[in-house]
Specification:
Layout: H1 2-32, E1 55-65, E2 71-82, E3 87-97, H2 102-107, E4 118-136, E5 140-157, E6 160-174, E7 179-192, E8 199-213
Antiparallel strand pairs: 1-2, 1-8, 2-3, 3-4, 4-5, 5-6, 6-7, 7-8
Amino acid sequence: MENWTQRILLKTTLLGMLLSSASNFALADATDKPLIEPDIHPQIVDESLIDTENFELGTFVGVISIEDFESSLIYGARLAYHLSEHFFFEGNVGFAEGGETSFEKLGNVQLLSDSERDYNYYNIGLGLNLPGQLFTPGGYTFNTNFYLVGGLGATEFADDNRLTVNFGAGYQVLLNDWLSLHVTVREHVYKIDLLGEEKNSFNTEVTSGLSVFF
């Protein structure tokens, strides 16, 4: 009777040990493999696709309102050097032709010759970029810059060279890593006395254009 009892106890002990080992193995396996695995795929960035060029060269075309001399087509070129993501130097040249004043039209007189109506300017200045992004239908995203600009230069008009202050703002869309689209509004201010008393002439320019980085 005693041997039979010992056998039962021994079998019970062995069974308990086996169940305990199996339970520990299952817990260890559950710890190693989470029940829900996150669906995360690392993004591979190709650094060769990131443009590091600082020079920007472009052309523009638009309309300039020459005070007292109507609005005219204007075209020109722009060169910029980017000091950082936010600051840049720029230089611009523009070409237009002034129209007739109301005095000329009503009085049937000519204040300026055809060559004196040539309106040309050049300037240099400093700009401030405020980076952003543009989201378009179809899931496309473009880097953008809203920018402020200002500087000094000269305007050749009415057979005279006039010191000019310019300031304005614009919006740039980077189409890829080397090509961008610009829309700019700029004011050109200089002194003029063609119609009598000397005054400040305000000439508003609205242009758009393309530029490339190199």
